[in-house]
Amino acid sequence: MRLAGLILLLSFGAPAWAYDGPIIDMHLHAWPLGEHGNPDKPKNIAAREKALIKLKEYNVVLAATSGPEAFLTAWSAAEPERLLPGPVFPCINGENPTWFQYRCFEAGGDFPNPAWLEAKYTSGEYGVMGELYNQYAGVPYGDPRMDPYYEMAQRLGIPVAFHTHSAPPLTAHQCCPDFRISNGNPLLVEDVLARYPKLKVYIMHANPLVYPEVLDLLTQYPKVHVDISPWEWVLPREKFHRLLQTYKEAGLLGRIMFGSDGHDYGDSLEAYNSAEFLTERELAGIFCGNAERFLRRRELCD
Ligand SMILES: [Zn+2]
Question: How far is it, in rounded angstroms, from Cα 44 to Cα 52?
Fold first, then answer.
C-alpha cells in the first residue's frame, strides 16, 4: 500500500497513502430511500440491494445501521453478517421524524416497548441504540422518558448514538414541528453522561468548528466517541480538513469513528485520504480501529 501510494504521490501530487483496509461504518440507515412506506416496495428493495452491494465493494465489515423495525428486519435478513442494527426513536405520531414516512415500530408508538427492545438486544438481533432522534422529536436528551432506555443500554453494554447539531433547512416546518437547533448542542449530552457513568456513547455529526464545546466533552469523558458525517461531503474539502485538523491538534483523532450517513463511500474515503496531515495509522484508526475498540470487537480490522 505504501509503495502504491508513493507512486501515486509522485505521479499526481496525491497524499502519500490511501487507506484500503477494512471499514467499520458507524452511521448507516435502513429506511425508505426510494418511496414512503414499507421495505417491500420496489424502489425500497432496489435501494437496499444497492446499499448492501456497496458494503461488500468497499470492504465495510460492519455497519451500525439504524431505522424502523420493518426495515431493520428486512435488511438483516438480506445481510446477516455485516449489520449492527439499532432502532430510531423518539418518533412523532409513531412515524420516523425525517423526510420519508413509515412506522417506527410495528406495535406503534413513539418509543419502543422496553421489554421488547431488551429482548432484541439479548438475542443479539440489535446491537446499538439509535440514531436517537431526540432533537427532531423535541425530546431533550435528558428527558425522563429516555431513562429506561439509558438504564437498559448501560446495563447491557449497548452503544448509544445521539443525533446532534442540526438538520436540513426548515425541518420544523416540514416533518418535525418540535425540532429546535437549541436541542442539538452536543454539550446537552453531558447531563446523560453525568447520570450514567458506564453508558457507552457516541455523538453523531460532531463538528467542533461550530460547537467547540464538543472537545471539552470528549476530554471530560474519555470513553465518548464521535462520528463526523456528513461534514466530509457537506463542507468544502478545505474546511473539512480544518475540522480534522482541529481534532488532531486537540489530540482526539483516536475518538473519531468513520460514518457514511448513506453517502457514497468513494467520495467519503477520498475526503479523509486527501488530508495530507493524517498518518496511515491515524487513517486506519478512523476507518476501523477506533470503532473496533469502542465496540470491544476483535479481528474486524486485521
Ligand atoms: Zn443524524
Answer: 12
> Which DSSP letter does residue 173 get?
G
Q: Vertex 134, ends 239 and 251: CA angle to 5°?
A: 40
Cα-to-centroid distance, 16 and ligand 1 (Å): 32
Give yes or no for a contact between 187 and 159, defined as CB atoms under 8 angstroms apart. Answer: no
| SS3 (DSSP) at 164 | coil
Give me ligand 1 centre to Cα 257, in Å.
14
Q: Cell numbers of 184, please?
A: 442539538
Going from the Cα of 299 to the center of ligand 1, the distance in angstroms, rounded, reads: 28
What pLDDT, in 10s, does the model give residues 281-294? 999 999 999 999 99
Query: Where are any strands of DSSP class E within the chain?
Result: 23-29, 60-67, 83-87, 129-132, 160-163, 201-204, 225-227
Please give the grid coordinates belonging to residue 39. 421495505
Spatial distance between the Cα atoms of 215 and 166, rounded to a whole number of angstroms: 18
Q: Please list, residue by residue across 113-152, b when 16 or more beta carbons sit within 10 angstroms of its beta carbon and e when fewer do.
A: eeeebbebbeeeebbbbbbbbbbbbbbbbbeeebeebbeb
pLDDT band at 124 (very low <50, low <70, confident <90, very high): very high
pTM of the model: 0.94
For 93, the grid coordinates are 405520531
Domain covering 19-294: architecture: Alpha-Beta Barrel (3.20)
CA of 2 to the centre of ligand 1 (A): 34
